Amino acid sequence: MTKVNVVNAVTTIPGLPGSPFGETGSPQIAVPAGRHLIVETLSVQVDVSPSGSKIEAFVNYTCAGKSVTLFVPVTYAYTDLGTGFDFYVALQAVRLYADPGTSVAVTAFSPGQTGTLFVTVSGYLI
């Protein structure tokens, strides 16, 4: 019997994804042209003022040419007494497929004022 070395078609190094990718953006990150982004971990930080305001967060991206909006449940983290903003965070294990040349963005809605929005993704490009 002959042994055959088999390597996944998307890997360049056995055991690793095709091209590892990680980036933080405010409020979005760009997917490189000509490459699909497979997001495996998603982290979001949003803030709102005045303190005590309700907030909801969403991640928006394009998959197979269609716009996708996903609700991201956020958890209160802390209040910045200097600015009066409440900070909310989320960390999710996901499997998102973003099209080449598009973006992955975070949006937030609140009856109060939203501040800076951050999205961090990690995954790989194919």
Q: Sum up the overall morphology in one term.
A: elongated
User: Approximately how much helix is present in the residues?
Assistant: under 10%
Based on CA atoms alone, the radius of gyration comes out at 18 Å
Indicate the low-confidence ranges by residue numbers. Answer: 4-11
Short description:
The chain is an all-beta fold and 126 residues long. It is 0% helix and 60% strand.
Overview of the molecule:
By secondary structure, the chain is mainly beta. It has a single domain (20-125), classed as Jelly Rolls. It is 0% helix and 60% strand. It contains no helices and 10 strands. Strand 4 (56-63) and strand 5 form a beta hairpin. It is elongated. The two termini are 33 Å apart.
